[in-house]
Amino acid sequence: MNYADIKKVDVANGPGVRVSLFVSGCTHRCEGCFNPETWSFDFGSPFGEAEVEKILTFLAPDHIRGLSLLGGEPFEPDNQRAVLDLVRRVREQLPEKTIWCYTGYLYEDLAANHMGTHSRPLLEGLDVLVDGPFILEKKDLGLRFRGSSNQRIIDVPTSLQAGEVRLAEEYM
Ligand code: SF4
How many Å lie between the centroid of ligand 1 and the Cα of residue 99? Predict the structure, then answer.
């Protein structure tokens, strides 16, 4: 996997002060995408152990609430293994941090493990999933933590337990 950027401080993509990883590669190609340069899987730099360590170091201070995963598409089948490994490292070493992930896929398809072999395990490592493609006609600058009104902010553990989508109402 390649990545486009690691932001040490991000206050736009989830609650509190967060660290963000923008992975490379996305096949959704939404019209009006905010980050089209990240559609290419070759964009940016290789993501390896040094980057994992960097993210863990950035996450460690008390004032950092958690990690946000964006792109690009973290749930692209070719990206899932590397993202899953990162999520597991964060869970092991910094269990108090929350993990948010943005995807153009739908929760139901990821939960059913229809989108690549690691989509369900990766989902199980998250606190919140913001799902669905960006739809230009539904763009709304007044929305917090999402670009278009079709996108859902989903409480992942509660949804997995219920067997159906439960929104994280406090963020909608
Ligand atoms: S899913 Fe996200 S990164 Fe991919 S094309 Fe849509 S808006 Fe852009």
Answer: 19
Query: Is any ligand 1 atom within 6 A of the Cβ of residue 28?
Result: yes
Nearest alpha-carbon partner for 21 in 106, 95, 98, 100: 100
Could you give the CA distance from residue 164 to residue 126 in angstroms, rounded to a whole number? Answer: 16
Could you count the other beta carbons within 10 Å of the beta carbon of residue 13? 18
Q: Which of 75, 64, 57 minimizes the C-alpha distance to 156?
A: 75
The minimum-distance atom of ligand 1 relative to the CA of 29 is: 5
Angle between helices 49-59 and 77-93 (to 10 degrees): 40
Give 84-128 pLDDT, tens digit per residue.
999 999 999 999 999 999 999 999 999 999 889 999 999 999 999
Pair 10, 19: CB distance under 8 Å: yes
Ligand 1 midpoint to CA 133 (Å):
6
Centre of ligand 1 to C-alpha 116, Å, is: 18
